[in-house]
Amino acid sequence: MEEATDIINEGISKIIVNESDLGLAGEEGNVTERFQATPQGMAVAYGSLVLMALLPIVLGSIRSVRHLNNQKESGEQVETMTGKDAMMFPLIASAALLGLYIFFQVFSKEYVNMLLTAYFFFLGVLAVAHLTTPITAMLLPAGFPNENYHLIFTQGKGDKKEEVINFEFDRKDVVCMLLCSLLGVWYLWEKHWIANNIFGLAFAINGVEFLQLNTVGTGCILLCGLFFYDIFWVFGTDVMVTVAKSFEAPIKVVFPQDLLEKGLLANNFAMLGLGDIVIPGIFIALLLRFDHSLNKRSRTYFGFSFAAYVMGLLLTIIVMHVFKHAQPALLYLVPMCLGVPLFVALVKGELKQMFKYEDNPTPEEETKDAIKDVSPPNATKSVKGKEKKKAK
Predict the structure, then answer these.
(1) Which of 51-65, 76-90, 127-141 has the highest mean pLDDT?
(2) 77-86, 139-148, 217-226: range with highest mean pLDDT
(3) Which DSSP string do the residues of 95-134 spell out, in sequence order?
(4) What is the rounded distance in angstroms from the CA atom of residue 37 to the CA atom of residue 267?
(5) pLDDT band at residue 270 under the 50/70/90 scheme
(6) Global pTM?
(7) Which residue of 53, 93, 146, 352 has the smallest Cβ count within 10 Å?
(8) DSSP state of 191
(9) Which residues pair with 48 in a beta bridge?
(10) Which are the catalytic amino acids?
(11) Contact, 18 vs 240, CB < 8 A?
(12) Distance from C-alpha of 207 to C-alpha of 127, rounded to nearest angstrom
């Protein structure tokens, strides 16, 4: 399943670049005039959005710890975001967003969305299958005639032969893919908001699991860069809102504000972009892995950062409701998700240790740490003393 994981990882990266801030908004990014949502309907809608935002962060963070441990045990090379990648990310996201804006201005929205729908159908089926394969395997009867398969695809001859695809799977995986394809067909046929949310949540969980920040410093660079990116594209231009209106793909989670009146046929949606879940989520997941590295039972930094995310999201909803305008959620999430855990680390005297932590330290750094752990505290002083005596 490693090839499928790489495809999902690459696809999710593109999703986050393309929509890293649809923000939190009413239908099509604005408060609709056709239907005035009731207080009860708004409470249900925004409460559901908050729950859908929290679920991927919790599950994705826990899965990211297991994923990192599995990579280290297998000796697999771990791909993480570097400081340079973090600095370039807002620029790449801006270029992608502007490119989509121009694309929608030049070409017909229907044809563009047709291509996007086909792409997200394939990517969404893979994302959901990755999460549900263990569940499908458990539900299948013990007598299921399982068989393993190995798909290898190479290019070139002799010494120039290169492996392009190396994919191992079994019949249980095939059954899971077929079931997930039925979900994809439903999404293609109806574009129903429930199918959209299933795909969106699958993208978000996989994104938090696979998109790993190596250090807290890298996370700070990424979040700060996207903080200013968000402000510029939402408040400075109409590009973000235009793309959000035109882009028909499961890159956001939605919930109808008129569900109580119209049931499953409701169509007045509040929305939250996946970028507002995944971007803070990968930083919160990093803090959970830092908690694990401290070898303590408590998950202090994960707990505080998670609570800060909840407060930032609630603040976004309140501001949007007061000003009746779509809000860039990262404007409120970034200060909360960065400020709270850093302040806690400062109070606990672990700020330096937090910034020194790396998911994947280089061999030289691992050697230095091992020497520090093994060497007694006075070893350095005694060596220096001997050198002084020799000098005399």
Answers:
(1) 51-65
(2) 217-226
(3) HHHHHHHHHHHHS-HHHHHHHHHHHHHHHHHHHHHHHHHH
(4) 11
(5) confident
(6) 0.83
(7) 352
(8) -
(9) none
(10) 230, 276
(11) no
(12) 10
